[in-house]
Specification:
alpha/beta; N-(1-d-carboxylethyl)-l-norvaline Dehydrogenase, domain 2; Rossmann fold; 15 helices
Amino acid sequence: MPTDEFISRIEDSTARVAVIGLGYVGLPIVLAFHQAGMHVIGFDIDQAKIDAIAAGRSYISHIGTERMATLAKSDRFTGTADPSALAKADAIIICVPTPLTEYRDPDMKYVEDTARMIAGVLRKGQVVSLESTTYPGTCEDVLIPILEGSGLKAGQDFDVVYSPEREDPANPDFDTRSIPKVIGAADPKALARAHALYAVIVDEIVETRDLKTAEAVKITENVFRAVNIALVNELKLIYARMGIDVWDVIDAAKTKPFGFMPFYPGPGLGGHCIPVDPFYLTWRARAFGINTRFIELSGEINRAMPDHVIAELGLALSMHRQKPFAGSRILVAGAAYKKNVDDLRESPSLELIEKLEELGAEVDYCDPFIPEIKPTRDHPDLAGRQSVELTADYLKSLDAVLLATDHDATDYDLIADNAALIVDTRNAFSGRAVKGVLVKA
């Protein structure tokens, strides 16, 4: 059997791997391939990221400066915003955003623009891997046709694979290497090349039968989470009316060693996957004449949670502070979408801040991971806001603290000792002695 030159170059570490998009998904992949001894090209249109890497500076909180410094000094890494550099790569991995439009339809602009950029430099023998979460059929219907605009033919001159990202930022139990890697391709040759490529950085490869199956795996994982979070959010509302603490229920239920998996309520969904990905599937399903009522209902429940939290806060202000929203001083504790990360994407905290201010409240935020709110597409008016410093006097001056993100670094004892009213959406104050009033929402 003839030797596959691509696999040979991977195995002897002479291959070059390019990663497009150096954010929360792309940067860990760059670091993993570099640590494995490969030559890596990191591409991003954001020159600030390229400059930060060159300076050995981390712009993602859970990635240490020591790893970035090693990358910056290495002659096996090139950071660039020049698309022509991609022609030197044997494998090109796409890690770009796949958001929603204002009508909650898939926004494929970033994938399409990236594909057109690659098509301009594509050469024979390259492997292109899409990692961005998307709907089943994207590779065949969108990515491959654009790449074939180069005049080259997929499966003959170059290969396309799909391997969904599975990063869980700030989770100490899992990293790039320990998380099994799903791959899918159109033919056995492409699948073998994908296997060789990713086996360099992960311990377990999970092969699927084709591109569509691999695309469906990722979206299924996130739909599963979104539906179960919606369920527990609805249970929270039901049990609260009955005088039952849903957190106590979950703690007891999760002791069952089979048939139950704990999910937890919150002030709304955040991050780049869970609030977005289910709508990619519902959009695609409509093309096949299928109504996804269950998934869409889950989305409605989760999207309604910020309004529920605000209603609970308003009731608490009225009962315990005898004040309306207008003129009340409120602190939103936590801006990131999840604990211990500096990721603002789709964070419900931003929606909470805007809605509270629309109701006339004076709102600050504090977050040890986000000293300043960067520009976002949905909340541009919040750009430039800065995290306040927590002091006893400042907390005593507030009408309420709304705990939206339960970072480990938050000084809960300081808040518990000095806040007159705490509305806790994460059960962070459970078991703590609170001097003021504590309300779970």
